[in-house]
């Protein structure tokens, strides 16, 4: 009877070992396409939008040259489209940079909008500390304030 118990125990351990290896294999890292999905979608949208911008720009340039009775010169088209593209990017990126950098700066300096959440959270933590250990809470909070001073 002992050999049967030993056999079952060994079989069970082998089964657990192999099933854990299979589970580890299944949890392998996702492929590059899945991991960088946001990048790929953004890149595809960018390529589509820049292509359409240049294609429709070509038709508008051709029409404008035709209306003025001028020859279509590709170098003039390239200069005009680069100028238009840079103007669009400049205005969009300046706006985006201001929004991101300005928000980060205001958050760092502690504007009233950014302090709202941390003050509330600190108040809740102080309340919990007072409830858990009423005798030592004042000393503990004082040590925390010395270690992490407020601005």
Characterise this structure.
By secondary structure, this protein is mostly helical. It has 2 domains: 78 residues; 42 residues, no CATH class. Helix content is 85%, strand content 0%. Helix 5 packs antiparallel against helix 6. The radius of gyration is 32 Å and the shape is elongated. It starts with a helix and ends with a helix.
Ranges where pLDDT stays below 50 over 5 or more residues in a row are none
Distance between termini?
73 Å
User: How would you state the average pLDDT, rounded?
Assistant: 79
As for the number of domains, it is 2
Strand percentage, roughly?
A: under 5%
Radius of gyration: 32 Å
Helix and strand pattern: HHHHHH
Which structural category fits the helices and strands?
mainly alpha
What is the approximate shape? elongated
Q: Please summarize the sheet with the most strands.
A: none
Number of strands: 0
Indicate the topology.
Blueprint: H1 2-26, H2 32-35, H3 37-67, H4 74-109, H5 112-132, H6 137-147
Helix pairs in contact: 5-6
């Amino acid at each position: 009877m002992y050999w049967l118990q030993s056999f079952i125990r060994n079989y069970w351990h082998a089964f657990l070992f192999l099933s854990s290896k299979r589970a580890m294999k299944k949890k392998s890292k996702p492929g590059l396409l899945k991991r960088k999905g946001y990048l790929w979608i953004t890149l595809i949208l960018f390529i589509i939008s820049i292509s359409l911008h240049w294609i429709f720009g070509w038709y508008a340039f051709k029409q404008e040259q035709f209306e003025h009775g001028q020859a279509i010169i590709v170098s003039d088209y390239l200069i005009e489209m680069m100028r238009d593209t840079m103007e669009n990017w400049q205005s969009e990126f300046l706006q985006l940079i201001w929004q991101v950098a300005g928000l980060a700066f205001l958050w760092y300096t502690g504007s009233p909008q950014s302090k709202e959440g941390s003050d509330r959270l600190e108040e809740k933590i102080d309340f919990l500390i007072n409830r858990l250990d009423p005798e030592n809470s004042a000393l503990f909070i004082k040590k925390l304030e010395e270690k992490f001073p407020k601005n």
